[in-house]
Every structure is written in structure tokens, then in C-alpha cells.
Amino acid sequence: MRNLLLLGFAVLMLSSCSKNLVPYSANLPESNGWSESQIERIQFYTSDDIVLYREVSESDTRIAEGKIKFENGREIEEVVIRKGTPGVAIWQEEDQRYGIALDKGSEQFLTFGPNPERKRRYYLLASDWEGKVGTVTYNGIDYKTSQQSANVYLMVDMRKIRKTDVNSKVARGRTVK
After folding, report:
1. With contact defined as beta carbons under 8 Å apart, do 154 and 112 qualify?
2. What 3-state DSSP class applies to 129?
3. C-alpha to C-alpha distance for 170 and 14, rounded to whole angstroms
4. How far apart are CA 49 and CA 152, in angstroms?
């Protein structure tokens, strides 16, 4: 019985510390009146894995952060950005597109923007789409995206966003002398 009680307490504590991730949409900054600088302080997360790949030629010696693998006799560089990877907005455009940095380098970002057909959520954007395969620039290099990457959107932890710091003071009162 005692062990069951301790287990229940541990589960309760862990669940209270978990993230409350919700899709980020254009409605959030509009309804909250967030400025550019406030948006740059928001911690974003990816909803699913993003897989970027490109064929590497023998003359191309610049290998970015990815893994090299052979596919049908061709050398392929692959960059995997896991579900839940944290990122920050490093630039914003007037059309509401954001550059989300997902790694340390200044060029290691992907572009996300609101999709009016999908509840204005911020989905991965590409310079070109062929079906569900997009062409994106990451770390200054053009990559293709996997088909599943077309459905990746940004998420935010509403628990942290809604956290309000309150400085409170209790008056001690004043007496007549």
C-alpha cells in the first residue's frame, strides 16, 4: 500500500512538471498582442520529425551536420530534426513567416508560417513543393524534405507562456503614535 501511494505521488509530481504543448497559430500573437521581441523569447518545439536530405557529389566536400549514407549506390547526406526539438525565432517577416533556429549556427534554421487552410498553424515552409516533398535551405545548403515533414508544425508550451510573475507585498499597517 505504501509503495502504491509513493508511486501515485511520483506520477502526480512528474505530470505537473510536464509540458503543455499546443500548436502555435497566428491567432496566439494577435490575441495576446505580442511584439517581435516577445515572440523571440518564446520556446518553440517541432510537432514531428523533420528529415532533410540531399545527394552529395564527389566534388562537394562541404558536409553539414548530417549523416552520410548510401542509397542505391548514391551518397546521401541526411539531417534529422527530432520531434520536440526546441527552437527560437531568429527573424520575422511582415507576412508572419518566422526563421526558427533549431541548432547553434546562425544559418541552421527553417522557415515556418501560418497555413490559412489548417487553422493558421505555423507549418514548415519550402521554397518549392513537388507533392509533399519540399526544397528548403538549412545551414546555407538546399535540401529536400521527407514527405512526412510537410505536416510538421510549431508547438509552444502554454504553461510557460501563461506563467505570470507576481510581485506581492503585504502591508503591515500603520498605527497612531
Report:
1. yes
2. strand
3. 32
4. 7
The answer to whether 25 and 44 are in contact (CB under 8 A) is no
Q: How far is it, in rounded angstroms, from Cα 111 to Cα 98?
A: 6
What DSSP letter does each residue of 77-112 carry, written as one string? EEEEE-TT-EEEEEEE-TTS-EEEE-SSSTT-EEEE
Q: What is the pLDDT of residues 126-168, one digit of tens each?
A: 999 999 999 999 999 999 999 999 999 999 998 876 654 446 6
Residue 145, classed as helix, strand or coil, is strand
Q: What pLDDT, on the 0 to 100 scale, is given for residue 136? A: 97
**Residue 153 grid cell:** 508544425
Q: 19: Cβ–Cβ under 8 A, 6 or more apart, which residues?
A: 45, 157, 159
pLDDT at position 52 over 50: yes
Q: Where are the domains of the chain?
A: 18-50+82-161
Q: Give the residue carrying C-alpha cell 524534405.
A: 145
Mean pLDDT to the nearest integer, 50-78 = 70
Q: Which residue has the higher pLDDT, 29 or 176?
A: 29
